[in-house]
Structure formats: structure tokens, C-alpha cells
Amino acid sequence: MKTVAYYRNSISKEKQKLSIEMQMQHVHEVAAKNRLLIDDEFMDRETSARKKKMEERKGMAQLIEEIKKGRVKNLIVYSRCRLARNVQQYMSLYDLLRQHKVNVIFAADFEFPMMYTAEAELIERIVAAMNQEDAEKLVQKLQDSKVTVAREGKHAGGRIPFGYRSPREDLEEDKEESDWILVEEEVKTIQNVYDLFLQKDFSSLTKFVEIVNELGLRFKDNKEWNYSNMQNVLTNPIYKGKRISHIKGEEIEKDVPHLKIVDETVWENVQKKMSKVVKRRKKSKENQNENHVFLLKELVYCDECNQVMHGKPHQLKGKTFLVYKCKKHSKVRASKDWLENTVIEHANEFFNQIIHTQFAEVIEKIYKGETKGYIEAIKQIDRELKQLEESMVQRVEHALAKEEELQLNKSMLQMLKKYEQSLFVKSELESRIFEMNEKFKTIHDWKQESSLKMIDPDMEDDQKIELLQDIISRVRVSKEKIEIIFRHPLFTGLEGREEIGLI
Predict the structure, then answer these.
(1) By three-state DSSP, how is residue 374 classified?
(2) Is the Cα torsion angle 404, 410, 412, 417 positive or negative in sign?
(3) What's the rounded Cα separation, in Å, for the pair 139 and 75?
(4) Which residue from 31, 25, 11 is spatially nearest to 139, judged by alpha carbons?
(5) What average pLDDT does this structure show over 372-385?
(6) From 3.40.50.2300, 3.90.1750.20, 1.10.8.60, 3.30.413.10, which CATH number describes the 164-277 domain?
(7) Is 107 helix (H, G, I), strand (E, B) or coil?
(8) Residue (of 481, 171, 191) closest to 339 by Cα position
(9) What CATH number should be reported for the domain whose range is 2-148?
């Protein structure tokens, strides 16, 4: 089994302080400190852990494969957020590391050790949620800035369309210029393409692309036109002087007359002809997947007969709704979406309440459980050291009594080596306890953070079901209300209850 390292940065080296090189430096220092030789290094350059799943990251996929094959003993990584930014993905990796008993060593000073206990798993989930929240806050800031830019009628991101270029491409341009510049040759090509589209007869857009290419008109970098770039050019409203941005589900439309290439009437006529030429297939509702996942399966009970309520379609006024319904009492039912969303909302609140009110107990339980083993190991080492000291003293006294020269024979050298090794191990264990004591103190600060979601909307359904099974004892439904009975994830026998009126 070997020691491996993993590195990841999200953006280019020039733009990110947490570069691969910086991570390497810290990781190698930690490896040297722990007297470990790094056998393999896996890395993902300019890779977003928020946008890409773990299996889509080449370096991470290779690392996971090595772990699954049981080849990894130690994994050194700069920090937790280098592994994953998504709670579900991080916990999946955590389970894999625990299953194969991989010793994870963090190079960052602010990270605390990764442990594999029930309580530690809860802490890992909290940290993962915070890392995800940090990433989401960063994305939120970027999106907010994009909205501001878009509302000012400026380019809010993405590729620059054919016919324009960035002012930064020309050093002689005014540095204050913040919008695109028309490319004269490409502008003429676009105008010719629009005119040809309205003048020529053809049965499909593919046929029109062939006509344009045969006439010698070329796309960017003198490339031939294809279906995709032709459709983009013929439907982009920027060419009629209107910039449309879609950010955070909001459509922002601004007039940019200085970027206009074709007359608005010409553009509209092209759209009319496009609607006839390009036939879009719409999925019928009948062909859509009719499989529905009921997240609260086996958790919902009828308050009148105490029997499990099953998820099923329910007909009302000619419409079909998905509900949880009692087989014996037809009037005892609750809308699937409303009930699941309500339970998840209150489950997250219950989870946060645990963290905020019983956090000290969780930390103490983790600290005592993990340090107990270290303390016992130190006691054992102290006993061994005492025995070694006594043995060495006896050897010296024996030599002095016989007035012999003390010989460092093989036995004595082995004893000295073992003594030195025991001192080193004791020192390392004491340092580990000190680090745990210091770093776990910082966890208390997390109580001040904003609300954490144990069950996130982006999670897979099976993950939601598993978490709900862990924290929900049962949901009782009557005609007037529902009662959620929570199961405490840390302390057996403790429950929480909440009543919500049916609406």
C-alpha cells in the first residue's frame, strides 16, 4: 500500500492563489514531517469541483480507482474543499475512505483530522455543507455582478459572437472601451448570409448551409459553416442591436444600437422563415417519464388507524394529483410535494437546532472518543520507555560493577533504537492531541454560521431517502394536521416533535 497526494485548482494559475504548485509545496512539507514518501500524485488543473462530479475529474477518478483497489494507505491533500464542494459527493468519498481505512492527512493548518466515527461523520457533513455554502456564496456574488453588468447593457460573460471582438485584442484601442468592437469583414459576411437566407429557396437549414459554403462565404477563422453556427448567427438578437442575457433565471434585455449589424425588419423576417425551415420536436407529456419517487416511503402513518400511508395518484375534479393516502380512511391524505417539502424543511430546522444547541456535546463526544485511544497509547509507550530505561541502567550498572567497558553490541543498539522510536511516537501522539484540542475549538465558531441544509434540493433521491430515514421516526397524518416525529441522530431515545396544520 502506498502514500498518494491529490491537488486541484478551480481556475488558471494566474487567477488563483491556491495554485497546484502552492498545494504541492505544503503537501511535500507535511509528507517530510510525517516521514512519508509520496508514491503517486493525482491532480486536476483548472477544474471546478462545483460544476464537475468526481468521476468527471480525471485525477480524482484515478485516485478513487486506486482506493477501491485497496492500494492507498495514506492520502495527503491540502484541504477538504480540494476533494469536493458538493455535500453528497464529499460524503460519498468519505464513505469510500472509511471503508478502505485510508489515513487522510491535511496540509492546511486550519484543517482538523479526518476520523471515522458516527459523531465524526456528522461533523464531516457539517464541514462539507459549509464548503458547499462557501462555493455557492462565491457563485452568488459572481452572478450578482453579472446581473449588474447585464442591466447596464454590457457583456456579462460567455463567448463573443461572430462579427465582434474584444477591445483588449487591440492594444491601440482606448482602455476605457468596455464593449465589443465590430469586425468589418465578418459584419459583411453576416449581412450577406441574412440576405441570402431571405432570397434563396431551400428545404432545410442544412441545405442553406451548403449553399453558403458553395458561395465561398466563411465563418470565423476561415472555417466552413455548419448547422450549429449558422443557426446561432441567424437567431441571435445581438445582430439587430438587442443584447439578451439569462442570469439566475432572469431574462435581461437591453438595446445596444452600436452593435447592430442587420435591420430589425430583416432580422424578424429571418425568424419567420426559420420557424418554417427548422422543425423543432416537442416532447409530448404522454412520452415523459411517469415514474415518481416517494421520498417518505414507509414513514407516513394514518393517525386514525396507525397504518402506513402509501404514495399513489389521486383523482380530483378531473385532475390527477400525487398524494400519500390511507387505504382504510380515504379522506386522510396529503399532497406528495407539499408533505415532502414540509418535512424536509422542518428536518433541516431540527438538524440546525441540534447543531446550535448541542454542539458542545457533539464536540466533547468526538474529542473524548478520539483522544482516549491516543492517551492509552501514550501510557503504553511510557511503560515501554520505563522498561527500556531500567534495562539500559542495569546494563550500565552491571558493566560498572565489573569495571568493564560498556559495549554497544547488537542487543544494546536495538534497545537504543527502540527507545528513540518510542520517544518519537510519543511526541507525535502528544502533538496530535494538542492539535485536536486546538482545532476542535474552532468548530464552535461554526455555530454562528448561517443555516445549514442537511437535505439539499440538489441531492439524489436515494440520498434524500437515506437521510430522511435517519432523522425521521415517522410522520402522522390526520384530516386536520400532520405531526413529524424526529429521531435524534446522536443520542438514542431523544426525539423531537412538530405539528403543522394541513392546508
Answers:
(1) helix
(2) positive
(3) 29
(4) 11
(5) 80
(6) 3.90.1750.20
(7) coil
(8) 481
(9) 3.40.50.1390
